[in-house]
Amino acid sequence: MHFLHSMAFTELTDLDLWLQAKQDKGVAFKTLFDRYWEKLYVYAFNRLKSEADAQDIVQEVMISLWSRRATLDIETSLAAYLHTAVQYEVLNHFSRTARMADRSMEYEQTILPELNSYTAPLHLKELATMAANEITRLPEKMQQVYRLRQEKNLSVKEISGLLNISEQTVRNQLNASYQKLKKHLKEAILLAIFLQGN
Asked: Any idea which UniProt keywords this protein has (predicted)?
């Protein structure tokens, strides 16, 4: 029965799906997500040449679309809106990358504040619990570095001395942990959206 219900959604127009998504129908939003994911991903990948960055940007755009659904009025087609949004995020990515070249401590940030803007479908407490679960799934050395930085508030230099590894290795481990956590948390948030209102 649920399968037939989902099949019916795939036959709806973008506008019909968007109107249902605005009424908190997660299955309608998932249908839109499935309809545009590949096109948006290919566009982002062709410019960024990075699977992870392209995936990250498309997830970000779709989560932002959901979190703003109640107030967002799309004057063009949904396809045009999504393409423009991804294009904008790609340009933002290049801008952030340029800034990182000048700020080697760009990695010095926690993961939760960066995701606060995506908490419309979730309470912050639930997001914190999800983050804690994902931290335990990080590789052992990466988890150790992350916890020393975020929970013990040690500097990169202090972590380097404590673990007897280079400061650059510490930064690399921190950066990789942030990227992994962002990826998994966004996937979890999208899943929560898809299951909402069904």
From this structure: Sigma factor, Transcription, Transcription regulation
Q: Which long-range contacts (CB under 8 A, 24 or more apart) does 23-27 make?
A: 23/197, 24/69, 24/196, 24/197, 25/197, 25/198, 26/193, 26/194, 26/195, 26/196, 26/197, 26/198, 27/194, 27/197, 27/198
50: amino acid identity, one letter: S
Tell me the domains of the chain and their CATH numbers. 1-102 (1.10.1740.10), 110-198 (1.10.10.10)
pTM of the model as a whole: 0.72
Contact by Cβ (8 Å): 194, 24: no
Say how far apart CA 152 and CA 143 lie, in whole Å: 13
Residue 9 one-letter amino acid:
F
Q: Return the SS3 of 166.
A: coil
- Quick one: angle between helices 14-21 and 26-48, nearest 10? 110
